[in-house]
Amino acid sequence: MNEQPGNDGFGNAQPVGEQPGTSGYSPIQHGFAQTLPPIVSQPAAAVDTMGPNVGTPYGPPLPMLPPADPSAAVSIRALFKRFGNNVAVNGLSLDIPVGSFYGLVGPNGAGKTTTLTMLTGLLKPDAGMAMILGVDVWNHIDQAKRIIGVMPQSDQIFDRLTGLQLLMYAGMLRGMPRIEVTRRANDLLGAFDLLGAANKAVADYSSGMTKKICLATAMIHSPRLLVLDEPFESVDPVSSANLRDILIEYVQTGGTVIVSSHVMAMVQKMCTHVAVIDHGQVKAAGTVAQVAAGEDLEDRFLDLVGGRHAAARLDWLNGGGGSGAQGVSGAGSDGSGAFERSAR
């Protein structure tokens, strides 16, 4: 395909090469740090399906985990992260097979996003290790980042750029030739039904369009692993279906997708594997059928993480217009009547 002047959205923009060694981090030890301050509170114990934790801060060291699996798309061992007295990830271990569509589910604050942020080299763990396709993330961080695509959140992109410009920026930041980036950007815009908005500022996109362009920026360099945090949040059903189709096709070509979500129905329908995370540990992991264990996945999830309780009884909440509504509208002693009189 011949390059046309200005068809990349920038005119004469020059490719920007990836600068190696700019992560600012040094490799860390593959064991729990010995200098952590004491933990104030202890959460309820969690079950780790990968085996016993190594040197968990909540008890004595247990038998060693099996070594990381270099043949897996992702192999995590004893990953640990704390913020002050809050333990976000507590000795988490997990293997994700190549070519899987892997869902990470858990309640708010379970540690899903923190785990993904450490896995992708964006947050330094306090201890443990993460391996992507045989590459130790924190010993070879630049090499690991070249083979993954991370879908940014909408507040993490330059939304004053047009859709085409944003894709060009993402590809050229990876050191790709401008002609190749232009070709792929237009292919992605077509695949995501965004050609008509290619020269429109991303700030003017709808929520669904913004999710699509964010996913496209993660795919332009053809990564072997895609990491998506809540990709279907605030997206309409039509856009969600289109996104799912593209991701499923990507998996069929041999790629691996990791997606965190709160929507159990979507995970059960779309994912091949799932891990349930709570209190920074894996409660269950395997194929969707294995984890569901003959139940609906949402029911199984509630069994594993707990926390469900009977609905609170609010005497004044009466949708049938009973005594609760009359008490509000009448000139009672609760002050509402006085308000009505003053309004008149």
Question: What is this structure, in a nutshell?
Answer:
With 344 residues, the protein is α/β, with parallel strands linked by helices. It has helices spanning 112-119, 141-146, 163-173, 178-191, 207-219, 237-252, 264-270, 288-292, 297-305, 323-329, 336-343; strands at residues 74-83, 86-96, 101-105, 127-132, 135-136, 148-150, 225-229, 256-260, 273-278, 281-287.
Terminal residue distance: 74 Å
Mean pLDDT: 80
Uncertain ranges: 1-6, 12-63
- The counted number of beta strands is 10
Beta content: 15-25%
| Helix proportion | 25-40%
* Rg measurement, Å: 24 Å
Give a quick account of the main beta sheet: strands, pairing sense, barrel closure: 6 strands, mixed
Can you put this structure into words, describing what you see?
The structure is a single chain. The chain is 30% helix and 17% strand. By secondary structure, the chain is an alpha/beta fold. The chain has a domain at 148-222. The strands form two sheets. Strands 6-7-8-3-9-10 form a six-stranded mixed β-sheet, sandwiched between helices. Strands 2-1-4-5 form a four-stranded antiparallel β-sheet. Helix 3 (163-173) crosses helix 4 (178-191) and helix 3 packs parallel to helix 5. The chain starts with 73 loop residues before the first strand and ends with a helix.
List the helices and strands and how they pair.
Layout: E1 74-83, E2 86-96, E3 101-105, H1 112-119, E4 127-132, E5 135-136, H2 141-146, E6 148-150, H3 163-173, H4 178-191, H5 207-219, E7 225-229, H6 237-252, E8 256-260, H7 264-270, E9 273-278, E10 281-287, H8 288-292, H9 297-305, H10 323-329, H11 336-343
Parallel strand pairs: 3-8, 3-9, 6-7, 7-8
Antiparallel strand pairs: 1-2, 1-4, 4-5, 9-10
